[in-house]
Amino acid sequence: MKKAFVAALLIVTAIPLLIGVVALPPHGDPDTPVHTHISARYLEEGREEAGADNIVTGVLLNYRGLDTAGEVTVIFTALMAGLAVLISHKKQPEGDATYDAAEAAAEDAPVRAPVSPVVSFVVRLLAPFIALFAVYVIVNGHVTPGGGFQGGAILGALFIALTIVLGRERTRTLMPRLAQPWMQGAALLTFVGVGIVGGALTGHFLGYPAQASLHLARELMMLVLEAGIGLGGAAVFATLFLQMEAE
Amino acid sequence: MSVVFDIMLLVFLIVTALAVARAKDLLGAAILFSSYSLMMCLLWQHRGAPDVAMTEAAVGAGITTVLFLVAIGRTTRREK
Q: Per the CB < 8 Å rule, is B66 touching A241?
């Protein structure tokens, strides 16, 4: 009975969705509105207007900069929600000293099974190259595929791998406790900062100066944004991992 | 050739997705989900979206798998 109901519900949901798929224009059709209006403009003028060879970055940081700021806010809020859930599940004597409680508990935790020497060796060997690649992806985001989100994810993954292999005592210096809130909010803070700078230069929040003489300022604003997104993203992943692992 | 490759990736994608949904062993499900992300990453790259492919590889195949494993380590491995 229940299975029949679920099946019926799924079919009823699927039919309108499939009708919608059928009604979509063919994949890659150049005559659809999205390809005749905005995309053409982006592809033709984007390099000059947005100042980024990689048009994806140009759209992300320039044309749709406010959307990206919203996206960064969503990520930050998701981290806060995740931390709230994780921390409320921890047993702790004091009410608000969450970080200290988590870290003290982690130090008292029984020693975990040692990491395989092969994994340990490979992670140690590759760590500097991964770090360099992450920075390259972040800094080069306006020329080649990549950018703050991608490089930040790579940095976060590197931090997690290092923490697993070396232990959290060794990687703690990479994310000092005092700097943690600033790193977690780095993406949001840089967006606000660069937005205000752009506002001072152009009169619009997150506006980019269009004059050719201010080309350098425009590049610098994008670079700072990419760096902030990268640092913030990495910190979000690292914090989630540390909080989930701590007990 | 390109179409054949696409179809192979899609078939593998669907197979891994179904396997994840059916798996009772959560550790296996997490590993399968990681391979699902890998297929997805190849598909993104093949459809001309290298930016998304990079994110998928780092986040989907890497970080979420680690977070799943940590969560399994703190709960139970078998689905009840």
A: yes
